[in-house]
Amino acid sequence: MTINQQQAGRVAARRRVTIEEALDHAERIVAERGAGAVTIAELARGLGMQPPSVYKYFTSLHGVYDALFLRGYARLSAFVDEAARDVDPGLARLRESNRAIVRWSVLNRGLAPLLFWRPIPGFQPDLRSYRLAEDLVERCRVDLRTAVRRGQLAPDADSDQALRLFTTISAGLCSQQMANEPDATYETGRFTSLTDQALEMFVHHYAPSPWKGTKMIQELTQDTVQRRIEASPEALYDLIADVTRTPQLSPEVVAAEWIDGATGPAVGVRFRATNHAGRGPDWHNTPIITVAERGQEFAFTRTEKHAGTIEWRYRFTPDGMGTVVTESYEVIRPVTRFGWFIIGVLYGNKDRKGDLHRGMTQTLERLAALAENPPTGSGASSADTRADESASGAGQPRL
Fold first, then answer.
1. Is 93 within 8 Å of 84 (Cβ atoms)?
2. Sheet harboring 322-333: ordered strands across?
3. Which of the given ranges, 254-258, 338-342, 373-377, has the highest pLDDT on average?
4. Where are the alpha helices (DSSP H) in 87-156?
5. Closest among 107, 266, 120 to 187, alpha carbons compared
């Protein structure tokens, strides 16, 4: 190391010491008189220098505040780390971190307002300083997500709304405590002593009840099943589009009939379906046909109060002497939370997405059996014979 490098190192070290001394003095001012009492002149008096000399170390007064903000969040992060070091991720660590934030705020009444509120008009921390604040918030988000994944909280606890509510708890407790009993301790404060009760209110609000739990709420968007069947597209269309035969195909539809005077499929025509799934009673819905192109495509939508809107679709693609039948559904409007309560608790269904997929597979299996091996008897007719008859519309109006 050269002499110049050694001198530069000593100058840099003295500069760091002076900056820390200035921040120590600024922190004392903040603790005694509030953040607004910090001035360049006050810092100069504390450091024994002329006010212009302060600008050698800070670009402005807001630069002082920015350094205090960075110092405060670094200390707060370390305090939270120490408090939650050996605590399991998820709800337990979320609780302990919140307690640590409130406790640190009471111990640092000067810096806490600068970190959590806006006591200095026009002050904005720079990106480097604010990143520590974002990291602390992100820790809360991660623990909320972990608590949901472990079944400790309901799925909607993993949301921006839940995160805002959680951070409001700690900020609100600190604010009330400092405004009313600034000299009380964490344990004796009228508001900080309510920390655990406030946390319990949050946990209770997002408790994983049977109808909030992840097992009861699934993300239904769309699904598709295909099968090649040895029959013509027209014959298969007629079987699918015959509402009166839907119970022969669908494992959940027990009855179906045309309504409003309709006798066959057409866009806008409705039919009434009676459904059964799980341990609950039968329920009814009235699907409406949206596509009726014989030998090509058949589709309908069904809407229920709490079960949303689903569009069911069947496409028929010629394949040699047979046809590839594609059955699919797409969720237009999702099932409500109360709808999932009905599905999971009242009807006892634990995997509705899987039920629907298995139901589509079984529907196409039954369709193949009916088309390729028609029942014998005086009243029986093959699928291709039925293709010459008039088509009627139906499918799987399931939940």
1. yes
2. 222-229, 322-333, 308-319, 297-304, 288-293
3. 254-258
4. 91-107, 111-116, 127-149
5. 107
Please provide the DSSP assignment of 3-37 as one string: HHHHHHHHHHHHHHHHHHHHHHHHHHHHHHH-GGG
> What is the rounded CA–CA span in Å between residue 288 and residue 300?
5
Which residues lie closer than 8 Å to 210 by C-beta, 6 or more apart? 216, 341, 344, 345
- In angstroms, the CA 32 to CA 286 distance is 72
Report which residue type is found at 22. Answer: A
Give 143-171 as a DSSP string: HHHHHHHTTSS-GGGSSHHHHHHHHHHHH
The two structure tokens encoding residue 96: 């302990």
The residue-averaged pLDDT of 35-54 equals 93
Among residues 303, 269, 262, the alpha carbon closest in space to that of 397 is found at 303
Residue 19 has pLDDT above 80, yes or no: yes
d(CA 245, CA 381): 14
Question: Over the range 187-206, which residues count as b (16 or more CB within 10 Å of their CB) and which as e?
Answer: eebebbbbbeebbeebbeeb
pTM for the whole thing? 0.52
Nearest to 336 by CA among 202, 215, 220, 252: 220
Return the percent helix, strand and coil in the chain, to nearest 5. 50, 15, 35
Q: Are 374 and 382 in contact (CB under 8 A)?
A: yes
Residue 190 is which amino acid?
R
Domains and CATH numbers, the chain: 59-205 (1.10.357.10), 222-386 (3.30.530.20)
Per-residue pLDDT, averaged over 8-30, amounts to 90
Q: What is the pLDDT of residue 2?
A: 74
Give residue 286's pLDDT.
Answer: 95
Residue 39, token pair as written in the block: 């001035």
Q: What digits encode the pLDDT tens for the residues 325-371?
A: 999 999 999 999 888 888 888 888 888 888 999 999 999 999 999 99
- Residue 63: in which H helix or E strand, if any? helix 61-83
Predicted confidence at residue 386, as pLDDT, reads: 38
Tokens of 305: 């109060």
